[in-house]
Specification:
Elements: H1 11-16, E1 28-33, H2 37-54, E2 59-63, H3 69-76
Parallel strand pairs: 1-2
């Protein structure tokens, strides 16, 4: 998709939208080995939902041991990423 500009996520930009991430990195209580798409798209999403429902001022620290690519990309966006969830009419 050359020529398409994409804006990086950041905590500063989210604050201007009135959106606040549920987890602050300084309060992490879970260490997950790996930063792959499955973890970010499923495990981290379910953990965030559980924390939203039941409270708990802690989150996940992801440790990437194979490559710095994902860690560097997440660091450039304050550890934030987006998830697109598709579903039918009952979703």
């Amino acid at each position: 998709m050359s020529g398409v500009a994409t804006a990086r996520l950041s905590r500063r930009k989210l604050g201007g939208l009135g959106v606040v991430p549920a987890v602050v990195p300084e309060q992490a209580g879970i260490v997950h080995l790996g930063l792959g798409s499955f973890h970010r798209g499923h495990q981290a999403v379910y953990t965030a939902r559980a924390l939203d429902a039941g409270g708990g001022p802690w989150g996940i620290v992801g440790v990437g041991s194979r490559s710095r690519r994902i860690a560097d990309a997440l660091r450039a966006q304050d550890g934030l990423y987006s998830v697109l969830e598709l579903g039918g009419a009952d979703a």
